[in-house]
Amino acid sequence: MALKVLVGCKRVIDYAVKIRIKPDKLGVVTEGVKHSMNPFDEIAVEEAVRLKERKLAKEIIVVTCGPPQAAETIRTALAMGADRGIHVEIPLDQMDTFQPIHVSKVLAKLAEQEKVDIVMLGKLAIDDDSNQTAQMTASLLNWPQGVFASKIDKTDAGLEIIREVDGGLETIRTTLPAVLSADLRLNEPRYATLPNIMKAKKKKVVKMKPADLGVDMAPRIQVVSVEDPPVREAGQTVSDVDDLVAKLKDKGFSSA
Amino acid sequence: MFSTPTKLSGLVNTLRFARNQSTLVLVEHNNEKINPVTLNAITAARALGGEVNCLVAGTSCGDVAKEVSSVEGISKVLVAEDAAFEGFMPEKLTPILMASQNQFKFTHIIAGASAFSRGLLPRVAAQLDVSPISDIIGIKDKDTFVRTIYAGNAIMTLKSMDPVKIVTVRTTAFEPATVGGGSAALEAAPAAAGDTADVSQWVGQELSKSERPDLGSAKVVVSGGRGMKTGDNFSMLYDLADKLGAGVGASRAAVDAGMVPNDMQIGQTGKIIAPELYIAVGISGAIQHLAGMKDSKVIVAVNKDPEAPIFQVSDFGLVADLFKAVPEITEKI
After folding, report:
1. How many CA atoms lie within 13 A of B325 on its CB side?
2. pLDDT (0 to 100) of residue B195
3. For a designed S-S bond to A108, which of A16, A37, A140, B54 qualifies (C-beta 3.0 to 4.6 A apart)?
4. CB-side exposure of A74: number of CA atoms within 13 Å?
C-alpha cells in the first residue's frame, strides 16, 4: 500500500528579489541573483515528506529540470526528507524556452520508469506563472489530477482532495496513480535542519539529459521581447480622511 | 494614470489580421448562466479575426447555449450535454474538446483564465502536443501574444510556433462582449472518442455566497490585509463596501490567518483584478499582492506604517490607524 512519490521542484529567482530586465530586452537578469526553490514546490516536497511520516508513502524521489546550479534545489529537497534525486540537466541558455510541455514529458517518462503512485508538483512556478505542468503531466500519463490542492487525504480507493477554486473550495476523489499540484495553503514547509542538510549530502542524485528519456527539447515559442510593465505615476499622501474623501469625490467616487 | 495596454488598441490592431482563423471558445458556466469570464474571452477571440465558435459542455446546457448564441459574432455553438459532466471534471471534458478539435481543426482554442480553464486546457494541450499560453493580456497577431511573468514585474511578448494555439485570457485585459444581437446556430458537439474510465469523481463544493459584486467585475473593491487582525474586523470593510457598492477582497496573509475564505484572495496566485477603485486596508503591499491589483485605475492605501510598499503604488495614501480611519471614511464618503 505504501506509495512511491515523485516530487518535482524548480530553481527560480527568489520570491523577494526585485527582478531586472536584461539590456537586450529578451529576458530577466539571473546572473548573480539569489535563487531558491520555487515556494509552491517547497510545499509539494513538504506534503510528500508528511505522507512518508504518516507511513502512507515509502519513497520520495525528487526531480528537477534545470542548469547545473539546480543541484542546490535537489539538495534542499533531500534535506527536507526526500530519499533520492534525479537532476535532468538543461543548459542555462535553453531555460528561456524550456516550458511545461517539455517538463511534463520528462516527468511522465520518469513516473512510468520509476513506477510511482503519485506525482506531486507545485501549482505554478513564480517565474513563468504558467500553472500547466501538473495538468499536462497527468494528461500525458492519462492519470487523474488533483490540482490547486489545499488538503490531501488517502481513501480506500485512492485520494480525496480539497481544491481551492475561484468560488471557494471543491472536493474531488481520484483513483491512484494520480498527479497533484500543491496550492499555498496545503501546508507550511519545514526548514531543513543542519543535521538533515549534512545527511542529504550522502543521498544519491542521478544526472541525466532529456534526450536520455527520449524527450525532444525543441522550443515551441520564440521570445520576442521582455519589458518593464507600465510605470504608475507617483501618488500622493493625503493628510486625513476629509482630504481623502474630497479627492475621491473629485474622481467621481462616492456612496453608491 | 496609464491605460491598460490592450483594451481597445489591441482590438484595433488585430482586427486586420488572420483570415483563416477558426477559434473555439470554451464556455465557462454553471448550467444556468454564462460565467462573465467567457465574455472577455469572446472579445479576445474576435480580435483574432476569423470564425468564432463556442463549446458549451455541462449537465444542463439549454439556457447557457441560448445565451451564448445571442452574443454577437459567434458562428456556431457546439453543445455537449451529459450527466457525466457533473462538476466539469477536466478528465471528462478533455475528450469532448479533443473530438471537436479533431473534427473542426480550430487554429485557436480560447477561454477566460480561471480555475476551470487552467485545470482543463493544459490537459487538452498535452494531448495535442502544443504549449499552452496562459493568462494573456494582449494579442499582437494570430501567433504572437503578450503575457506577464514574475508576478507582473515583466511583460513578455512571445510567438507561438505550434499549429494550434491554446490560450487563456486575463479578463482585465479585454472588454466583455455584449449579450444580445447575435443568433448563432446550435449544434451537437461531436461525441468523445472511446470510453473515459472513472478515475476521478466530483464530490462537492463549498462556494462563498455573497450579495456583493463579484471581485472580477466590481468597479470598486475594498480589500483587507494582515492589519485587520481578525475576521470579525472585516465587518468594517463590509460596511464601507456596502456604502460604495463594492466587492471585498483580501491579501494572502488574511486568508492564511483564517480571517476570510480563499476566494477573496487577490494576488499573483489568487484573483487578478483591475477595478476603477481599489482600497487597500492594512495591506503592506508585497510583490505578490501587487500582482493582483496594480492595474487598478485608482489605488488608495490605508496603513499605519508609512514605509509600507503599498504606498509606492497608491495614488492616494493615508498613513493612519485603519480602525479609526475606515469607519470615518464610511461615514463621510
Report:
1. 25
2. 66
3. A140
4. 26
Q: At what angle do helices B7-15 and B37-48 cross, to 10 degrees?
A: 30
What's the whole-number mean pLDDT along residues B291-296? Answer: 94
User: From CA A31, how far away is CA A11, in angstroms rounded?
Assistant: 13
Helices B322-332 and A241-250, packing angle to 10 deg? 40
Chain A residues whose beta carbon lies within 8 Å of the beta carbon of residue B244? 253, 255-256
Omega cis (within 30) before A177: yes
pLDDT at B19 over 80: no
Global pTM exceeds 0.80:
yes
Q: What is the DSSP letter of B7?
A: H
B151–A126: do the CB atoms touch at under 8 Å? yes
Contact B333 A173 (CB under 8 A): no
Alpha helices of B232-310 — where are they, by DSSP H?
235-244, 252-256, 287-290
Reply yes or no on whether the pLDDT at B17 is more than 60: no
- Cβ distance A235 to B314 less than 8 Å, yes or no, reads yes
Q: Which residues are CB-contacts of B309 (< 8 A; sequence separation ≥ 6)?
A: B284, B285, B286, B290
Query: Binning pLDDT at 50, 70 and 90, where does residue B221 land?
Result: very high
Residue B317: beta bridge partners? A237, B301
> Cα(B176)–Cα(B36) distance, rounded to whole angstroms?
7
Query: pLDDT band for position A196 (50/70/90)?
Result: very high
Of B208, B288, B316, the CB nearest to A238: B316
A148 touching B (Cβ < 8 Å): yes
CB A141 within 8 A of CB A111: yes
Percent of chain A past pLDDT 90, that is, above it, reads 93
Nearest-neighbour CA in chain B from A5: distance (Å) = 18
Nearest CA in chain A to B209: A167
Spell A135-156 as b/e; 16+ CB within 10 A means b.
bbbbbbbebbbbbbbbbbeeee
Among the residue ranges B134-138, B177-181, B210-214, the one predicted with the least confidence is: B210-214
B333 → closest Cβ in A18, A224, A254? A254
In the prediction, which pLDDT does B164 show? Answer: 98
Q: Quick check: A24 contacting B, CB < 8 Å?
A: no
DSSP H/E element including B122: helix B115-128
